[in-house]
């Protein structure tokens, strides 16, 4: 008996001793039991000059070279805010035409932002991390956290909207999840890359407060809260210098002030000069010249500069040390999980995000949800009902294993019970014609309900990299089409598939009973739309951006500050981006920031504000009761805004400083609590070169959107500079 009880611990001891001996036999840099920095030091000391240089520039379209003699593999990167991009040829962006690079297409990031759910961001990031591992990727180029300055930006769909706090919170969950699978996340594009027009040359000018309060916070959250391992420098200039060579941004703010220990990667082809990149803080140069990798700015020219004494070796060593730190910290030199592709869990995550992100914009007289037992037929009209969207967006395109279109989702849900009549209505290639409209009208008249699925597409010049939109309006005659359809059938539902705000003609918006913003929902888009339309899912999405009535209401356009003049763009709107502009200037939006309806109703009450002792932590606790007062279970997002009553420096009318998503069963009431630190009440003071909280009175505003405040309270602050 004693022998049996002793045998298991003995075996475990022998195994542990064996592992320890095996590790001891390894060189330090290959020993996973040693601290990361010790391994980095050991490996750096073993590298020759040429081997060090191999870490700081590309050796193919998406990789840097390995060091075979030391067992260091090639380092592979890939695009991937919404999934792992298909493999391309080694020296071009042409598809490799492989049969093993199909993946899950997740919803676009503005869809994820519409969930206002950091847990959904974690689920999203887990899919990216696991599928990247299966595809052999070491660094995933995402998420993008640039702020929506203009609704016309061609890449708005790849970002988290117009608010820096929301963008930061969502990015943190995404990044932590990706990196938990041994894959480095690369947050992008640092900084000021808020349009595609002239993105490779435009010189962005903004004041210090705008930089620190609007455009830097999502990156700061990625670095300080998520521990992101890579940052991509943007294409544009910032205050005269290209971002890939910008000493003030890369060395001054990112590495010194924030203490960033990872790597700065150039956007592809965004490096312009050897001296600028070497001294300016860039660590890895990509995409400069795919025909001659030795001709990169940080290749042969950098080596010659070191040998001549122009550049100290320490500059190169710091860049290489950062690359080694990332590789070792993410397990590149150790055994990593194998990963997986399109598992049931991945499909469930894609569906969850697509469902949670759908925003119900209008629902007059409870037109939705539809009851299939009371219907015999549905007309489904619009090209976007059948269009596949995953393989668009340029660098964000996804080779999806499958993609459920809106029409397919409806067929899955009610196709066996209802007669579904289809009509294209319009064409993104040719617009609409009288014959197409007549066919759509006939379909609408023949059906109990008409569903028009319109919006935009993930191609230029709409929601796509490389070009901005030229108009806020719905293209291809959709306004005319929807007006004709609703005239033929008053029970017309409009489903918008897009990645950015669109204007809506009052000629039809005032007549249709219901409108959904479904975004680009990825592989499970069609199922998510059907589930919301028929009430299997209660919509809970909230807009992460303002929908203006007209383009000229948006700040950059109202001030003539887009797209810039003579190669320079002045951010004249300053802090007043998105709802900060609309609320401060008292301009009525079409739909405000944070807006989204539900099939149930919620009541807010009993808001309490409690002062906390600081000690470096929260200074206030805000609690509010939320009750589901409707007839259906559902989720509500409570949004907390702060307003300073008499600020020393100008501040916007209100600023988002907290949000909580809460699911409530019918008649259930719960208390939602927010913890606010000093930063929630502070502004960046250029004179003090830091964040300052005034000894002022602050209004605490909690509600269902920036324009729908349901409860309020007061917080009186004490002064202190951070």
TrEMBL record:
Residues 636-706 form the Fibronectin type III-like domain. SMART domains: Fn3_like (SM01217). It is an enzyme of class 3 (hydrolase). This is Beta-glucosidase BoGH3A. It comes from mine drainage metagenome. PROSITE patterns: GLYCOSYL_HYDROL_F3. InterPro entries: Cellulose_deg_GH3, Fn3-like, GH, Glyco_hydro_3_AS, Glyco_hydro_3_C, Glyco_hydro_3_C_sf, Glyco_hydro_3_N, Glyco_hydro_3_N_sf. Belongs to the glycosyl hydrolase 3 family.
């Amino acid at each position: 008996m004693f022998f049996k009880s002793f045998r298991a611990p003995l075996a475990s001891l022998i195994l542990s001793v064996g592992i320890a001996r095996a590790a001891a036999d390894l060189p330090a840099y290959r020993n996973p039991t040693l601290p990361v920095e010790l391994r980095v030091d050991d490996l750096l000391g073993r590298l020759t000059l040429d081997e060090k240089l191999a870490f700081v520039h590309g050796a193919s379209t998406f990789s840097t070279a390995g060091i075979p003699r030391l067992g260091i593999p090639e380092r592979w990167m890939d695009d991937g805010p919404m999934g792992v991009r298909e493999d391309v040829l080694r020296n071009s962006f042409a598809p490799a035409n492989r049969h093993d690079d199909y993946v899950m297409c997740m919803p676009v990031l503005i869809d994820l932002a519409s969930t206002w759910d950091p847990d959904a961001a974690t689920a999203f990031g887990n899919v990216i991390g696991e599928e990247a591992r299966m595809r052999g990727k070491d660094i995933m180029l995402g998420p993008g956290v640039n702020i929506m300055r203009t609704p016309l930006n061609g890449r708005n769909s790849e970002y988290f909207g117009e608010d820096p706090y929301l963008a930061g919170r969502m990015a943190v969950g995404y990044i932590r999840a990706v990196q938990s699978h041994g894959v480095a996340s690369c947050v992008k594009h640092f900084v000021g890359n808020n349009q595609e027009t002239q993105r490779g040359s435009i010189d962005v000018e903004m004041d210090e407060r705008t930089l620190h309060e609007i455009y830097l916070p999502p990156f700061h959250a990625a670095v300080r809260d998520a521990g992101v391992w890579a940052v991509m420098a943007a294409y544009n200039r910032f205050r005269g210098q290209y971002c890939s060579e910008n000493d003030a941004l890369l060395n001054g703010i990112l590495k010194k002030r924030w203490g960033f220990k990872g790597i700065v990667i150039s956007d592809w082809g965004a490096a312009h000069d050897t001296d600028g990149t070497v001294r300016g803080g860039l660590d890895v140069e990509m995409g400069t010249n795919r025909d001659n990798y030795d001709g990169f700015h940080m290749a042969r020219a950098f080596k010659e500069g070191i040998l001549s004494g122009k550049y100290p070796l320490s500059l190169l060593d710091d860049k290489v040390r950062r690359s080694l730190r990332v590789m070792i910290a993410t397990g590149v030199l150790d055994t990593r999980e194998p990963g997986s592709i399109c598992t049931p869990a991945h499909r469930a995550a894609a569906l969850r995000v697509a469902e949670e992100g759908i925003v119900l914009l209008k629902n007059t007289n409870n037109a939705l949800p539809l009851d299939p037992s009371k219907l015999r037929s549905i007309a489904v009209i619009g090209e976007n009902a059948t269009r596949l969207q995953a393989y668009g967006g340029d660098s964000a395109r996804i080779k999806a294993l499958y993609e459920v279109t809106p029409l397919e989702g409806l067929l899955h849900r009610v196709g066996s019970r209802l007669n579904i009549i289809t009509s294209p209505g319009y064409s993104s290639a040719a617009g609409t014609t009288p014959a197409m409209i007549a066919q759509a009208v006939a379909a609408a008249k023949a059906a109990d309900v008409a569903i028009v699925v319109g919006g935009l597409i993930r191609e230029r010049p709409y929601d796509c990299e490389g070009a901005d939109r030229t108009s806020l309006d719905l293209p291809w005659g959709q306004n005319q089409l929807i007006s004709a359809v609703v005239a033929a059938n008053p029970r017309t539902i409009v489903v918008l598939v897009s990645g950015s705000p669109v204007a809506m003609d009052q000629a039809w918006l005032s007549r249709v009973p219901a409108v959904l913003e479904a975004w680009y929902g990825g592989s499970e888009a069609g199922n998510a739309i059907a589930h919301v339309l028929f009430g299997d899912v209660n919509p809970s999405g909230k807009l992460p951006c303002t929908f203006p009535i007209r383009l000229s209401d948006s700040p950059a356009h109202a001030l003539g500050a887009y797209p810039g003049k003579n190669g320079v763009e002045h951010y004249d709107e300053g802090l007043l981006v998105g709802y900060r502009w609309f609320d401060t200037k008292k301009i009525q939006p079409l739909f405000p920031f944070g807006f989204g309806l539900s099939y149930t109703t919620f009541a807010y009450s009993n808001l309490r504000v409690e002062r906390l002792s600081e000690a470096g932590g929260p200074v206030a606790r805000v609690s509010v009761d939320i009750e589901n007062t409707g007839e259906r279970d559902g989720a509500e997002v409570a949004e907390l805004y702060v307003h300073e009553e008499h600020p020393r420096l100008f501040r916007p009318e209100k600023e988002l400083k907290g949000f909580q998503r809460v699911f409530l069963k019918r008649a259930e009431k719960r208390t939602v609590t927010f913890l606010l630190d000093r930063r929630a009440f502070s502004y960046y003071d250029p004179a003090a070169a830091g964040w300052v909280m005034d000894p002022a009175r602050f209004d605490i505003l909690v509600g269902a959107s920036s324009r729908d405040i349901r409860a309020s309270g007061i917080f009186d602050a004490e002064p202190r500079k951070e």
